[in-house]
């Protein structure tokens, strides 16, 4: 759609096609060859019809839509990791010290995943130390050994 006062040499539909090709990365030289017009004429249309501003506006709209899509995806991923965390926390609460490391690993996975999504990645290895009362094994219940805390 030619907006300026251009001679009637190039039909408006052709000018719009040139614009679309230009927006999609076609060089001025290739436009010149494809539409059989001079680069000077193409530049005149580009400048007078505001191709650069139109392209920038399109890019802003596309970028905003992409940002929104990324934010929605991150929200879904965070919710999924929080579900994992919640299930693992419930498992830790119910555990009878048979295989606590499985629940701890699951909880750690949920926390790391959430941090990765929000950009708070863990760079260092995180170690969880469990203090097991002296004489107690993983199969024992804590209440059976109250008082022994070494």
Give structural attributes.
single chain, 150 residues, mainly alpha, 2 domains, rod-shaped, disordered C terminus
Q: In words, what does this structure look like?
A:
There is one protein chain. The protein is built from five helices and no strands. The chain has 150 residues and is mostly helical. α4 (51-94) runs antiparallel to α5. The chain is rod-shaped, with a radius of gyration of 32 Å. Mean pLDDT is 77; it is low at 121-130 and 144-150.
What is the domain total for the residues?
Answer: 2
Question: Number of DSSP strands?
Answer: 0
User: How does the helix and strand content classify structurally?
Assistant: mainly alpha
Basic shape: rod-shaped
Task: Please provide a brief summary of the model.
It is built from 5 helices and no strands.
Task: Describe the protein's topology.
Elements: H1 12-23, H2 28-35, H3 39-48, H4 51-94, H5 100-118
Helix pairs in contact: 4-5
